[in-house]
């Protein structure tokens, strides 16, 4: 193990890096928070990737997370939502910095010129999807628990979620975006959110292969793909026809009405899940995913930057759906969010459309330089 040229980091050891042979290895190291991303971690990841992008000694990048005894296995459980809550209530401008820099990092990963490989072991949610979906090789394990659960905290599936969910087959994207359903390795591969499977105890053999040296960046990918194994069967395959039928409906109210008429256990469980989510943000999310189908990644990220600004600015402080959702889930932990409006039927088109109005002219947009 050797280090590349020194890169100045700011997260206090929450992001580690080293060079294994000719592959740069990044390790997320905040196990006590399930490797949830802080602003400092986002800045460290960006600095490392930019340095390695221009370093001829680095042929590829491998991203994984550290394990800690007594903690759940996680690649990355998302963004630091407690920081979101505190920053929104305090008017902390670093909240804006967080999302601007996180989305720019997501774009950097999607457009990275060298193979970027993500070892998606354990919990992969929210921001964890943002730093893995742009990988050239996305490897899931028997412990993978993948989701975009943002509607549960009064948010929407960001970090490029509109772009990558809308490219799932059929209406799977709408289903995953609205419900926040957790899926495993088989469904992730079947729905285009992962590329291959390996058992979690194979990490050592992957790391040995990485350190062995390679003739080219293509050689790195070829070697690692050759170590993949047969994936488990998708658990939700039997529900695909029902997902496409119900989630093709024109709006959230119609989706819920369609599920109401289906007496299957799956439909009723899905309906029960939707009834717990923010009605307003489900409607915003459905619009987001459907708009993103015809967008480039850069335009989707700009749209999401508008949306997240409006999540905190249209109703400042405690009035924000997002602040209320985080309060109920992670601060007070009463799991009784007071959504406003309280029902899907009370959400008007104007309430939804105001989220899509950019606070910035295009020339001043914080993500204007994304290509």
Descriptors:
three-stranded parallel sheet; six-stranded mixed sheet; 16 helices; globular; alpha/beta; 3-hydroxyisobutyryl-CoA hydrolase activity; HIBYL-CoA-H
Structure explained in plain terms:
The protein has 371 residues and is of the alpha/beta class. It has a single domain, classed as 2-enoyl-CoA Hydratase, Chain A, domain 1, CATH 3.90.226.10. It is 42% helix and 10% strand. The chain contains 16 helices and nine strands. It has a six-stranded mixed β-sheet, with helices on both faces. Strands 4-6-8 form a three-stranded parallel β-sheet. Strand 1 (15-20) and strand 2 (23-28) form a beta hairpin. Helix 2 (81-90) crosses helix 15, helix 3 packs antiparallel against helix 14 and helix 6 packs antiparallel against helix 13 (279-292). The longest helix is centred in the N-terminal third of the chain and has 17 residues, at 94-110. The two termini are 35 Å apart.
